[in-house]
From TrEMBL:
<feature type="domain" description="Thioredoxin">
    <location>
        <begin position="18"/>
        <end position="218"/>
    </location>
</feature>
<dbReference type="GO" id="GO:0016853">
    <property type="term" value="F:isomerase activity"/>
</dbReference>
<dbReference type="InterPro" id="IPR006311">
    <property type="entry name" value="TAT_signal"/>
</dbReference>
<dbReference type="InterPro" id="IPR013766">
    <property type="entry name" value="Thioredoxin_domain"/>
</dbReference>
<keyword id="KW-0732">Signal</keyword>
<protein>
    <submittedName>
        <fullName>Protein-disulfide isomerase</fullName>
    </submittedName>
</protein>
<comment type="similarity">
    <text>Belongs to the thioredoxin family. DsbA subfamily.</text>
</comment>
<dbReference type="InterPro" id="IPR036249">
    <property type="entry name" value="Thioredoxin-like_sf"/>
</dbReference>
<comment type="function">
    <text>May be required for disulfide bond formation in some proteins.</text>
</comment>
<dbReference type="InterPro" id="IPR012336">
    <property type="entry name" value="Thioredoxin-like_fold"/>
</dbReference>
<feature type="signal peptide">
    <location>
        <begin position="1"/>
        <end position="27"/>
    </location>
</feature>
<dbReference type="Pfam" id="PF13462">
    <property type="entry name" value="Thioredoxin_4"/>
</dbReference>
<keyword id="KW-0413">Isomerase</keyword>
């Protein structure tokens, strides 16, 4: 097998720089509310109850965010079993690249190229491999390519995926939507448009999410 050429994530084209600029601009926002966080957005990836469900839980997260990975490791499975697998809520995952933005962006592009049925598998696998990606021992590209191979994508397909101009433009649009909604950090959780915050925790705790979700489910 020939040696793989290290991918310069900047080669995702100048559009990737626009994504980074949008994210940097978003970080300067102050409290501007969470309007639009419960409404459907273009490119949403979801599971559980169908669209239009009584309760929608939206998570903004990044595959390079250690707090997002911690929430996935400690809380996601219990949350999914209690509310998503039982179709009690519509769970929406929204992509919000965090530094290093070029790696997060490549990871999100890869997840979408894997297809809707494998999207969440790829997202969770990338988060689970954060320590390996950032340890310095293994280049991030090598880790992402291994994940791509695992879902049936060749090296050429992977490279084409993370350099696709239309896909990058669509990702920029999703970043702008998050910016307009006033989301300034990850992970961020909203239950029917209202943010759920658990101070001192890696994202919203299952207890706090349950309180908000159950209150919405109980409404007439």
């Amino acid at each position: 097998m020939r040696a793989t050429k290290p991918l310069t994530f900047g080669s995702m084209s100048r559009r990737a720089a626009l994504t980074a600029a949008a994210l940097a601009a978003m970080a300067t926002l102050t409290g501007c509310g969470a309007s639009g966080t419960g409404a459907r957005a273009e490119g949403d990836m979801g599971m559980g109850a169908p669209e239009g469900a009584k309760v929608t839980v939206v998570e903004y997260a990044s595959v390079t965010c250690p707090h997002c990975a911690a929430w996935q490791n400690t809380t996601y499975e219990a949350f999914k079993a209690k509310y998503v697998d039982t179709n009690k809520v519509r769970y929406i995952f929204r992509e919000l690249p965090t530094p290093p933005v070029e790696i997060a962006s490549a990871g999100f592009l890869l997840a979408r190229c894997a297809g809707e049925d494998r999207y969440f598998d790829v997202i969770h696998e990338i988060m689970a491999r954060q320590q390996e990606m950032f340890s310095g021992a293994t280049p991030p590209r090598t880790v992402l390519l291994r994940i791509a191979n695992g879902v049936g994508l060749s090296e050429q397909q992977f490279t084409e995926c993370v350099t696709d101009e239309d896909a990058i433009a669509a990702m920029e649009a999703r970043v702008r939507t998050a910016q307009e909604a006033g989301v300034t950090g990850t992970p961020a959780f909203f239950v029917n448009g209202t943010q759920v915050v658990s101070p001192g925790s890696e994202g919203a705790t299952l207890e706090d999410l349950s309180k908000a979700i159950d209150a919405e489910l109980a409404k007439g």
